[in-house]
What we know:
CATH superfamily of chain B: P-loop containing nucleotide triphosphate hydrolases
Oligomer: heterodimer
Structural class of chain B: alpha/beta
Strand content of chain B: 25-35%
Strand order of the largest sheet of chain B: 6-7-8-3-9-10
Helix content of chain B: 25-40%
Distance between the termini of chain B: 35 Å
Number of strands of chain A: 4
Radius of gyration of chain A: 28 Å
Shape of chain A: elongated
Amino acid sequence: MKRFVGFIKKEFYHIFRDRRSLFILFGMPIAQILLFGFAITNEINNVEIAILDHSKDATTKEIINKISASKYFSINEFIERESEIENAFKKGKIKAVLNFEKDFSKNFIKEKHANIQVITDATDPNTANTISNYVNAIIKQYQKELNKDVTIAYQVIPETRMVYNPELKSVYMFVPGVMTVILMLVSAMMTSISITREKELGTMEILLVSPLKPSQVIIGKVFPYIFLSIINATVIVLLSIFIFNMPIHGSLVLLAFESVVFIITALALGILISTISATQQTAMMISLMGLMLPVILLSGFIFPISSMPLPLQFISNIIPAKWFIIIIKGIMLKGVGLQFLWKETLILLVMTVFFIGLSVKKYKIRLE
Amino acid sequence: MSNNKVILAEGLTKMFGDFTAVNAITFNVEKGEIFGFLGANGAGKTTAMKMLIGISNPTSGKANVAGFDVFTHAEDIKKNIGYMSQKFALYDDLTVKENITFFAGIYGLSKNEIKEKRAILIKELGLENVTNKLVGSLPLGWKQKLSFSVSLIHNPKIVFLDEPTGGVDPITRRQFWELIYKAANEGTTVFVTTHYMDEAEYCDRVSIMVNGKIEALDTPKNLKKQYKVSNMNDVFLKLARG
């Protein structure tokens, strides 16, 4: 035990004296969560638009007011001619143009039918889609208000309700993903680098010749990272609660337990990587290419798994991050308990045992 | 086992698949002896040494180190030997003091023992002014001497040195050998591999490995007589070229 304490102390010296690892350990999580939370978002806010109003009458004024009153849009300019539309887009500031036809009010009242053209800049298709949906919604709302007293004979009104994230905040989707990425990065990459570092420097040999058992050496190497990962997970959860007002509907204890399970899975992966790579460089490349990319692209963090081609959907099953994201989304947003998540938890545990078994086997071959 | 034989190897063999890296070597080393283990690169020195220090299992044969069998008691061997590898192996990002404390700690020395040993070691090596400096900032020669002293910190019966003086200037090499002599005088057996044939002359006895076999084993003086040459370099060349 005393030997173990000395070993851990040494590991912390390594970590705290290396600026690079300190940055990855503590700078990255905070930077990532703030970046994803504030900058990278699917919501639209204060999108600048232009208005081309051929009628300039009471109705168009009212609609324009409604639109500019919403927090989603702000009107950047009023243009006069169709030919200016192209130019307005090219200046790059506006994302959409609303084009009201001539005699809008007259048509609207007399013929009960008037047209607005919504032209959106689809260089960014997602945003274009969102903008056109929002504009439609605002106009529909306006119509509804006008038709308050009239009853239309046959009408289907779909009433949608978004559950678990009613405000459709993208930060709710990013927090679980970022947490997964960070834990993977810290646990797997940092441990694999720290173990291969000992190999590269030749100190691993000295440790193996000492009375320490190989398993003690490995546990001593990974232990500090369990501790640091737990701190990281805590920081991320606190940031999301206090800065992004993200609710945690489920049990915090369960969340902590599942996080530890995932941390151990990632550590096991890190150990496995360290057994197959001889240098820190290789370990880092394998971690980045083999772990980070799949975690970001195939885990359901950013792109929904259900819309991937079948082979990729299949591959996503072997990525531990996918299961962890399901688990934490379940706990944080849906508030479900272990009775719904035991399958995913079990998958993570089985993966962990598999990775450790494989590393032990590789390790033995190396010693022979 | 007789009391003054600290390493006994009999027909020790290591195979990697079809390749025989170490081919039935038989030798013994006496207590307090400086035993030179020579051979060209790839002759099997390091593999043989790894079997003796308990990090590689022999394919066949027998070996007894510090009174323990390498097959059954590798863990006991580890407690009784010191090891310094050809790669300089202290932690550059730890201070002199922290390195000594760490290595003494993993050999199970108590807090007071560590404190006492550390003070003696630092004084002997004249490192008083740099105890709190990072090892990475020290010159290579100092690091190497420190590394050797650290490998002796738990008073091992035998210390294994794998090409300890690679890349060191002649003066430091000289000082290094003084440390080796001192350790041997205090009763520690020294098992050393080297490339430098002048160092072979410093050893009490040397063995020369060629292609996995020990081709010669005697005192440097007798070997020179046997091969009718004036220095160890020529003995080595004669053997290695066959």
